[in-house]
Each structure stands twice: as C-alpha cells, then as structure tokens.
From TrEMBL:
It comes from the Bacteria. This is Restriction endonuclease. One of its GO terms (molecular function) is type II site-specific deoxyribonuclease activity. One of its GO terms (biological process) is DNA restriction-modification system.
Length: 203
C-alpha cells in the first residue's frame, strides 16, 4: 500500500519529523509492506456489486495489527471517573484517576468508571487505523486522541484512513480521507486541540 496524502494539524507531522523521525519511517515502512491485493477477499452481496471482490476492512486491520505489534506498537487505555455533576467533572478533569474517584465520593456523588482506549501507542505517539464506520473517525479525532493528549500520555495522534478511491472498493462504509479532512478543517485551525497527522492511503 502507499501513502497518497498527509495533513498536519497543529504541526503534528513537523513534530514527528523533528522528534520521532524513526517512528515516522516505521509507519511508512509498515504501510509500504502491506500488499493491498491480498486484502481483496470480501465477496460483495450488495445488489449493485454482487459477487464482486472488494477490499476487506477486517483483513486490512489485521495486516496492520500484525506489523505494528511486531514493532512494539501496543494498545493503551486511560481510565477516568465521571459523574452527573458538571462542576465536579470540571474540578476532576486534570486529577489522577484515584483522586477523581475520591473527590466525587467526598462530594456525595456516585463515581462512574470510564476509559478511552487506543489500538497503537509507542513513544508517546498514538495511532488509529480506521477502516470502521465513518462515525468512529470523529470519535478518534475529537475524543480519543484529545483525551490522551490532555492526560499527557501522548504528544501527537495519527489517523490512517483510506482515500475515497480505496473506500469505494471496500466492503463497508468507512470514513475516507477527503471527507474527514473537510470535517477537521471546517472546525477551525485550533480544533481539535491536539497535534495530529492524518494519512490517506491507497493500494
């Protein structure tokens, strides 16, 4: 596979080039190493494309996971506690999880354990390979990466997406690079408030 487009949000790509050059090369190598045609294994059952071979998002994710795990990109999870009281949440946002729980209880409310999980993290860089439904991309960009950044677990987030030309040949309706780039740009330069690199790939 190949990188077709990249977008640097809040200097995310520049950060990688200066501080994580080896990781950036590793990401490029992983993408280049995947044979997209081997992922073309899903037989379409849709009326408009019945019996046509399509790219399988499941298989593409599997190929990325094999290669990234072999290079010590590991899943990471950040726990936090929430409650229904807005003021309490604002007070506890920057506290460690144990302090959040205690503070909520001390103020007479019930703490609810929640978490954000990302598939691949290495050396304070988080990466999502997103071939799922389009709504998941917005969650990655505006919730997951931001939560890890605010909690000081990462310095930059990376989102790998299919280009529209690839998405059109996939067996589900994932988000695609051009559409998600538009969604980020229309929020304004500072939103989301986390350095990001969006990568559009194709076969």
């Amino acid at each position: 596979m190949k990188i077709v487009e990249t977008y640097s949000h809040l200097n995310g790509w520049e950060f990688l080039l200066v501080h994580k050059r080896k990781l950036w090369k590793e990401i490029q190598d992983v993408i280049r190493d995947i044979d997209g045609e081997q992922c073309k294994i899903k037989v379409s059952k849709e009326k408009r494309s019945r019996d046509r071979l399509l790219y399988s998002p499941v298989e593409m994710n599997r190929q990325f996971k094999i290669r990234l795990s072999a290079r010590s990109w590991d899943e990471s999870r950040v726990n936090y506690w929430v409650t229904s009281d807005r003021k309490l949440i604002q007070q506890t946002l920057t506290m460690p999880p144990d302090d959040q729980k205690r503070h909520i209880e001390d103020n007479g409310h019930v703490p609810i354990l929640s978490y954000n999980q990302t598939d691949f993290v290495k050396e304070r860089v988080a990466m999502e390979v997103q071939f799922g439904k389009y709504a998941f991309v917005a969650y990655d960009l505006f919730v997951k990466h931001l939560a890890f950044f605010v909690s000081d677990k990462i310095d930059v987030g990376i989102e790998i997406l299919p280009m529209k030309s690839l998405q059109a040949q996939m067996s589900s309706g994932p988000g695609y690079y051009e559409g998600e780039l538009y969604n980020v740009l229309r929020q304004g330069r500072g939103v989301p408030a986390v350095p990001l690199v969006m990568i559009g790939i194709d076969v």
